[in-house]
C-alpha cells in the first residue's frame, strides 16, 4: 500500500503523479531544484515541500521526475539519504538511465525504472493534471536485481495514477518508444519547421489537421534533445524509414509516372498503421468523455450563453475545446460530457436553437469508459483493484 510518497522534480510529470496520488489520499512530499516550482506545485494541491529529517520512517516510494541526464545522480542522492523503501524514475528513455545508475553504484534492488506514457507538449507544474495517465500504459523496466516487492510498489504507483503497468526490458522499451514517441516527435517538428517559412495567408488557413500533426512539436526542445540523444540508434533507424517513404513520395509526385502507386501505397500503409493504435481517440478529447460539436458565433457572450443552456439542461461540461479559423465569424465548441448525458445535452441545445452536430459525436472507447467508474471523473478508475 502506498501511503507516503516523495517526488523529486515537481514539473509536469512529477506534479501530475503527485496530484493523482493526493486524490487517493497519499501523503506527498515534493522537491525540485527550483523552490518556486515546489511552491506552485504545493499551491495546486500536489503535496507539501520535502523537509529533510521530518519523518523518521522512509516514504513508501520516491519518484525521480527530472530530465533524463540528471536522474541517475538524483537517484543515488535520494537512495543515499534513505528517503524511501522503493524508487522509480519516469525518464522517457530507460537503458541509458540504467547504465548510468549502475556506473554510479545505485541500489538496483529497490529501484525499478519506469516510464508513464502520458504527457503533454507543455511543461512545469501549471500544466499538470491528476488524470494525465488515465488509461495510458506505464512501462516498468526492472533490471534482474529488483526485488518483487519493488516491482509491485511501482506497479501500484502506476495503477494509482489510473495507468496500466506493463513490464518490458529496457532496450526493448527504447526501441518501442523510438517508434511510437521519439521519431513521431521529430517528424512532427519537421512538419512544424516548414511553417516558419509559411506566409501569413497560408497560416490563416491552418485547420485541425496541421494542429494535430504538430501539437507535440510545441514541446521543450531542451528536454527533447536530451531524450533523443539518450536513444540515438533506435530513433535514427525509424527516422531513416520515414525519410525513405517521404523521399519516395516526393520523387513519385515530381515524376508523375509512378505517382499513383507509390503515393497510394504510403497512404494505405499509413491508414493501416493508424488503425493499429490501441484505444486511439479524437485529438484533444479528454479520455472517457463524449465530445459534442456545437457551432458558436465568434462574438462576445456566445460561450456564456452556451454554458448557461447546458446548465439549464442540467448537464455538466467536463472540458471544452474551441476550433476556429481566424477571420471566420463562427467556430465549433467541442463539449466533453459524460457519455450518458450527451443525448440530453444535444436535444436541449437543439431546442434552444443551437446548431448541434451529434452526427460528428466522438464517443469514448469501451476501455476508456470502463476507466470511469462514476459520475465524477475524479473517481478512482475501475482497474485500480487489480
Ligand atoms: N513531457 C512529457 O510528455 C513526458 C512524458 C513522460 C515522461 N517524461 C519524462 O519526465 C521527466 C520530466 O519531464 P517533464 O515533462 O515533467 O519536465 P518539466 O520540465 O516539466 O519538469 C522537470 C522538473 O525537474 C526539475 N529538475 C531539473 N533538474 C533537477 C535536479 N537536479 N534536481 C531536482 N529537480 C530538478 C526542473 O526544475 C523541473 O521542475 C523527463 O525525464 C521526461 O523524459 C516526460
Ligand atoms: O502527449 C504528448 O504530448 C506526448 O508527447 C506524450 C509522450 C508521447 O510521445 O506519447 C511524450 C513523451 C513521453 O516520454 C511520453 C509520452
From TrEMBL:
Signal peptide: none annotated. One of its GO terms (molecular function) is prephenate dehydrogenase (NADP+) activity. Its EC number is 1.3.1.12. Residues 356-386 are annotated as: Disordered. Pathway: Amino-acid biosynthesis; L-tyrosine biosynthesis; (4-hydroxyphenyl)pyruvate from prephenate (NAD(+) route): step 1/1. Residues 3-284 form the Prephenate/arogenate dehydrogenase domain. InterPro entries: 6-PGluconate_DH-like_C_sf (IPR008927), ACT-like_dom_sf (IPR045865), ACT_dom (IPR002912), NAD(P)-bd_dom_sf (IPR036291), PDH_C (IPR046825), PDH_N (IPR046826), Preph/Arog_dehydrog (IPR050812), Prephen_DH (IPR003099). One of its GO terms (biological process) is tyrosine biosynthetic process. It catalyses: prephenate + NAD(+) = 3-(4-hydroxyphenyl)pyruvate + CO2 + NADH. Pfam families: PDH_C (PF20463), PDH_N (PF02153). It comes from the Bacteria. Residues 291-363 form the ACT domain. Residues 357-369 have a biased composition (Basic and acidic residues). Keywords: Amino-acid biosynthesis, Aromatic amino acid biosynthesis, NAD, Oxidoreductase, Tyrosine biosynthesis. Belongs to the prephenate/arogenate dehydrogenase family. NCBIfam families: PRK06545.2-3, PRK06545.2-4. This is Prephenate dehydrogenase. It comes from Marinactinospora thermotolerans DSM 45154.
